């Protein structure tokens, strides 16, 4: 059988578009309605997605309350506990949650995910992130942010410990880890799931982030807007994995893609325009400023060009993406804000199922990725659209499965059992 | 035989298994038991058997029950108050008001060894830390007023700004600004149980013993 795409469904309560909750057909109360979240996961499973994925932040992302109050992003379920509930209501789809190495303990985190892996029968995955926001730091008594490299040194040690705690060899024995940040004595002493250990996911695209991913990740999420940048990232991470002594096929690279799909291009564009019109100026601008980790946009005319920004300690790689794009296309601040508000720096496709499938096929067969992390603009509508229109189109082309290969996440991703 | 109000799960996880645990919780709910308390025993410091994470088990069990209260006996040592307050609030929301936390104090030496005690907890007054921990957790659970969310699509108002509250806790062990990013459940907050609240609990070490208690 020819190579097939791996697909993630990146779930959020109301949608990836910042104004999604205001859409007439969006479920605005999704962040307090567990039944809604169950339906989304079941829809993803009906579409044979490899996994559902949740991002995470340990704090209300927007510190300015008047702005926060205009979006739905301030509240939601804590992802790992939510996935435990979803595990009971699904049977095949992978369950991946984000958790930060900056504000957790490796033993506690390894144990939470190992338990999720157990109750889901081998479908759990952990997306390792390091925390860059002052907003999260303020909830953990931290004095400002550690430098980028320090965050990754802690993450590196953290990932090693979690790997040892999940390993079939050391699971029930002792770990005996004594490092700079952590001292962990014993193994978890709880049974392993049928997939052996949870899947490791990463999304950091900086140089140190890529190295860590190449050494430890099974799945890598990435934000890329063009086939060329995606391919450059793909080749680089696969090469790094090979240099680290790994089989490059065992690291699946999935760029984010935010689809808006309809029967005609005009309808799809109208749907997207409807969402864009719902973005309050202040909200779009704040979203952009927080991605750039800058306050340099304050007071600048919205119709003027982007200022020349210095790289910050926060999100280095995404910031570069935003700046590159605005320069390339000569966009105004408002245009950049609106552009990124829709998909948050990820790739956006607005069109028919055939249009979307054509683009996905071009990236996939062009050696730019192993599949995609699908980021529907609003829920449940755009996830339903993707499952009902795009998935069958991909299946007709032989690019996507017509039945799950197995019941574990590793099995469906084609990763094999951990060593 | 009368049905106990509270059943405290104990013993080795190997004597329970996941399916056995779920079956027991379902039967207990049917029989009218009010509360199940799950242990959160981490593996002993010298290695050996541990229990799965109690709060993750609660999330899984909550999706398969509808009335019974599910509490975890969890030590604060391996956690940060923001994370634990958040996970419990999330469980309370997804169980529709059935989540509880019983602060565990036994097994402190094992927890110390598992959670980098040498790095984080050396010389720390653990009782004092625990008291402050609970204060922060309770405070964070008051982050949102019950009627905070308005979902006004036309007016672009998701919540009322005055109904969200920061905590701004600055103490000996923790400094936490808040607010929590989980909305409170309609009933208010998760239950914070004390030993006295489960004084009449019946402890069972395995599924057979539990079934006997339920008269099966």
From TrEMBL, chain A:
Which Pfam families does this chain map to?
Answer: Bac_luciferase
Domain (Luciferase-like) spans 19-367
Q: Where does FMN bind?
A: 56, 98, 148, 152, 206
One term of GO molecular function: monooxygenase activity
Alphabetized, the UniProt keywords read:
Flavoprotein, FMN, Monooxygenase, Oxidoreductase
Q: Which InterPro entries match?
A: Diverse_substr_monoxygenases (IPR051260), Luciferase-like_dom (IPR011251), Luciferase-like_sf (IPR036661), NTA_MOA (IPR016215)
SUPFAM superfamilies annotated for this entry?
Bacterial luciferase-like
The family note in this entry says: Belongs to the NtaA/SnaA/DszA monooxygenase family.
What is the protein named? LLM class flavin-dependent oxidoreductase
UniProt lineage = Bacteria, Pseudomonadati, Pseudomonadota, Alphaproteobacteria, Hyphomicrobiales
Automatic annotation (TrEMBL), chain B:
Q: Does the keyword Flavoprotein apply?
A: yes
Q: Provide the alphabetized UniProt keywords.
A: Flavoprotein, FMN, Monooxygenase, Oxidoreductase
A GO term for molecular function = monooxygenase activity
The signal peptide stretch is none
Where's the Luciferase-like domain? 18-187
Q: Which Pfam families match?
A: Bac_luciferase (PF00296)
Q: Which domain of life is it from?
A: Bacteria
Q: What is this protein called?
A: LLM class flavin-dependent oxidoreductase
- Organism name: Pseudaminobacter soli (ex Zhang et al. 2022)
